[in-house]
Write a structure and sequence with these properties.
PIH1_N, about 300 residues, about 20% helix, alpha+beta, elongated, four-stranded antiparallel beta sheet, six-stranded mixed beta sheet
Length: about 300
């Protein structure tokens, strides 16, 4: 196979599953606007080691509002095959040390959401519990801590300590939940595993005879020119991510597997930012999720 078909600049872009990349997608915000948010409510909890933690749940108009669902609609989403369809944009700031009312030391996190969604969680226990669960998981993933779920809210206080300025993006990014049962693709391919351009002709023919896995590709946002493409590829016969070799070209996705179990070679409707792409394999659902940032429209038009 001509490797130039995969990459116009002849770069080798074998993907790796990186937890840090997934955390980046879930938690970081583009530096569109730096703003000091307003306090909404303050939650108190502890780490599993007993350290006191406060979370200021703040609000800003510059954080996108999630889709407005009823409680029944949220339940249906949570019971569906893809509960990540409902996404809650939030900005999680850096932890800062503060003193509680007794003068004891504590750690404080500022989490910023849309003010309309703040009103929503104040009127719906279902949405509130769902949001707090996602928020705690986000803090745990971003800062490598473990929080207890026995939280309480301060009655007469909207925040603790000084609220820090945060970079708030004005558009939502895909929420990719880092599932507990993920398995990492190695950062470096073992020498015994041939890269695509080194595969012998016999292997290449066997690959092409392998069945194409069931997959779906969605764009984010759903309307207009996308920021991301997200591919979900079902690999029920695969036990570990190390059995999968995944390569992305400028507008092409190529997947092969050890023992020629699956073969997938498709062209994509948009040019990708290859260096920022990432993948995650869930060993329980056997689904490989590939997140592919799309080159901005104005850059593509200049090429």
């Amino acid at each position: 196979m001509d490797s130039s078909l995969l990459d116009a600049e002849e770069k080798d872009n074998t993907l790796t599953l990186q937890n840090e990349f997934l955390r980046h997608l879930l938690l970081t915000q583009d530096s569109v606007k730096q703003e000091k948010s307003a306090g909404g409510m303050c939650m108190k909890t502890r780490t599993v080691n007993g350290e006191k933690v406060f979370i200021n749940i703040c609000y800003s108009e510059n954080v996108p509002e999630p889709k407005d669902l009823t409680d029944d609609e949220l339940l249906k989403v949570l019971e569906s095959e893809d509960p990540t369809k409902f996404r809650i944009p939030m900005s999680i700031g850096e932890p800062h040390a503060e003193l509680d009312k007794s003068g004891g030391g504590c750690t404080v996190y500022d989490v910023v959401i849309n003010p309309n969604f703040l009103n929503k969680i104040n009127t719906s226990e279902l949405f509130k519990t769902f949001f707090l669960t996602i928020m705690c998981e986000g803090i745990e993933s971003k800062y490598d801590v473990l929080l207890k779920r026995d939280w309480i809210f301060l009655k007469n206080r909207k925040s603790l300590g000084k609220l820090a300025e945060q970079h708030i993006r004005t558009k939502s990014t895909p929420l990719i939940v880092d599932m507990e049962s993920t398995n990492q693709l190695p950062a470096e391919q073992p020498e015994k595993r041939n890269l695509i351009e080194e595969i012998q002709k016999e292997d290449e023919e066997l690959n092409k005879k392998a069945p194409e896995p069931i997959f779906s590709i969605i764009q984010e946002p759903m309307d207009g020119y996308p920021e991301y493409l997200v591919a979900e590829i079902s690999l029920p016969e695969i036990k570990t991510a190390q059995s999968v070799t995944l390569k992305l070209g400028e507008d092409r996705l190529l997947l092969t597997t050890r023992s020629h179990v699956y073969y997938m070679d498709i062209f994509l409707p948009y040019d990708l930012v290859q260096d920022d792409c990432g993948a995650q394999f869930d060993k329980e659902s056997k689904v490989l999720t590939v997140t592919m940032p799309v080159k901005p429209k104005e850059i593509v038009q200049q090429i």
